[in-house]
């Protein structure tokens, strides 16, 4: 899915909500354990069906699948097939390795699995990111400023004439166009996000940290939109997935997603 | 496997060779394609049997399994079962994510899969590494200075009173003891490795970059050993795995591994 198509979905639905499909076995609704198919798959089927009208993207965090072993990797493949073509598909994998290895990761996520986008760590430098960028019809989502407190340990260190995360983003923005390169910027750092938007007016930001991590949605929408279009994918995982763990889990997830979508609509109105 | 047991293996075998099991479908010996089991598994079975006497560790690079989809993840599990208990098992996964996610990765590699060690990216800071360190009977192998040219983009940036990689290693060395924390230091930066050894006399270094990447084994052995014991795991992947792609691939791999082991023996002699 290219930028125009993604922006068109955002405009049409008036939402830039991305839903994180991070299956936590300990929090799955108990009603699902009796079914014929794997409870995670039944869960995702119901969640996707209920929430698809309120979001434009789904993000699958590989950790939550890998913890289930090879079954988990199967569930990752099967979950991906449940997502309609109208929705942007993100592998939240944060891979980062030397070129020869990175090429295998890029193939895994873009070719074998068919994701639209994958999150990538910039730590190892350009040659470790290039194999992802070589897929010019796919998206590389580079870690900029992550939402966790630990981002202060290294990413927020002064490095030359700015912080390390700024240096990384500035350098990386020269590696590819904003039509195939996004940045992760955590909602938990609203003033930094505002400054980053001024420095990078054209890039899409994938914004985690709303919901369970406490980021302020309104602040992000006010200051985070790009110059020419929304330029935001705002991710919510747990607050939607586990809105209820009773039999009404899907309805509860849809209501929560609709609530986020409504909040976004006000801010996105009138945008191209 | 704890430090004492690992050092005992190194002492006994007079080698600190680690062999990377990175299955490249395009380079597998053609003789394996006719067998009953998956060619990757047959390949690893033969390679492990042939090389086990000459190495103390095997390192599985997850990228080369993930590119094969859920079958690949199964092969990862099955390959792990082929490795004898006498050998140290490393997941070269370079995972790095926020705490809540990192906890799932740690469970995946230490519990579900049962690796002794996993490589971890420090970029997201202490809270992203802590879930791995919480397994005090396992090893966290943190990226220090990676072997690729791209490490010059960010890891080798001046940051405060040193380079970023030094800053990371110094800070991280306070997070856990050298009995559960190693660093990745590339063989392609011999003078930096020598300096790092002086700054970190007690930590094990996992050293990639020998073989296909051109690092100098002798230089590493001369300057890289720890104060109290070898403190080195030197990884070779392609140069051993694909020493021959003919019917003699296992013998050729064993010969190549034995050759590396012999070079190491001279330097390790007399070490505890």
Automatic annotation (TrEMBL), chains A, B:
Reaction catalysis annotation: orotidine 5'-phosphate + H(+) = UMP + CO2
Pfam families in alphabetical order: OMPdecase
Keyword Lyase: yes
CDD domains reported in the protein's UniProt record: OMP_decarboxylase_like
GO biological process, one term: 'de novo' pyrimidine nucleobase biosynthetic process
Pathway: Pyrimidine metabolism; UMP biosynthesis via de novo pathway; UMP from orotate: step 2/2
EC number, UniProt record: 4.1.1.23
GO MF annotation, one: orotidine-5'-phosphate decarboxylase activity
InterPro entries the UniProt entry points to: Aldolase_TIM (IPR013785), OMPdecase_type-2 (IPR011995), OMPdeCOase_dom (IPR001754), RibuloseP-bd_barrel (IPR011060)
Highest taxon above the source species: Bacteria
Span of domain Orotidine 5'-phosphate decarboxylase: 16-253
Entry keyword set: Decarboxylase, Lyase, Pyrimidine biosynthesis
SUPFAM superfamilies, alphabetized: Ribulose-phoshate binding barrel
Family affiliation: Belongs to the OMP decarboxylase family. Type 2 subfamily.
NCBIfam families: pyrF_sub2
Protein name: Orotidine-5'-phosphate decarboxylase
Organism: Thermoflavifilum thermophilum
Lineage of the organism: Bacteria, Pseudomonadati, Bacteroidota, Chitinophagia, Chitinophagales
